[in-house]
């Protein structure tokens, strides 16, 4: 993945400046001032087509943007707005505007739980099953029944109830709906990897600077093992995620083994989060459990995000099912 270093530096600077001026809050809401600045910089619709007001960038740039926000513990619905909701509208030939959007897939009873940023959005791109097909509608939040909720780090994860018979929906191809799920899963993998990388850096820095019994923690073999393990797990998660992202981008999200590669990425990310979070808190000791230390901003985020758009068990099962289905030709899932 090659992205202009100047663009990455700018992204990091924007979020670092915002984070320095805004301490973490237990309950997170979309910051309108930050959103306007991101809009002015062309980052709100980074991957949108230029003719429709977007910046015309790709997924590699979007991944760097999400990673920059995660590295600085800035919570904002960039992924839900740009990569999911607005993409779905464009993919289905529907026009949008400057309204802030998120997306949700309704169950058969017309409800959805854990919808990201619903209460703080202007509109929700709603998808639901209509017989053997699906329909999609761009709905004003006032037309939906929304019950606020949150995840482990206080990000909005709301419950939605809708009367689909009253929605002015249009047909959407089932392949587009399947791609939406993979996109959402990969979004969370990118965000978790950024959090894990930050945790690794914090653990290395703490072990090098903290002195116990007359020498740095990094000189103790047990601590070295903890850091080696968490660094290896974070690297594996990142490699699997980058492989899935590269496959998706280079094949236009259309190759037959993409689902398998996303499943592998999410499985690796989920299991890595357990090891990295546990080991990092052991390395940091009691100071790492305090609210004042920044470690929790990343460990809790990793644990929260790894279970969204599919649990760790769900993605483990997807890897297993794909492998068994491939039989003797399992190498094609990996090499093609």
From TrEMBL:
Pfam family, one: Acyl-CoA_dh_1
Keyword terms: FAD, Flavoprotein, Oxidoreductase
InterPro entries (alphabetical): AcylCo_DH-like_C (IPR036250), AcylCo_DH/oxidase_C (IPR009075), AcylCoA_DH/ox_N (IPR013786), AcylCoA_DH/ox_N_sf (IPR037069), AcylCoA_DH/oxidase_NM_dom_sf (IPR009100)
Keyword Repeat: no
Origin superkingdom: Bacteria
Positions of transmembrane segments: none
Sequence ranges assigned to domain Acyl-CoA dehydrogenase/oxidase C-terminal in this UniProt record: 188-311
Cofactor: FAD
Family to which this protein belongs: Belongs to the acyl-CoA dehydrogenase family.
Protein name: Acyl-CoA dehydrogenase
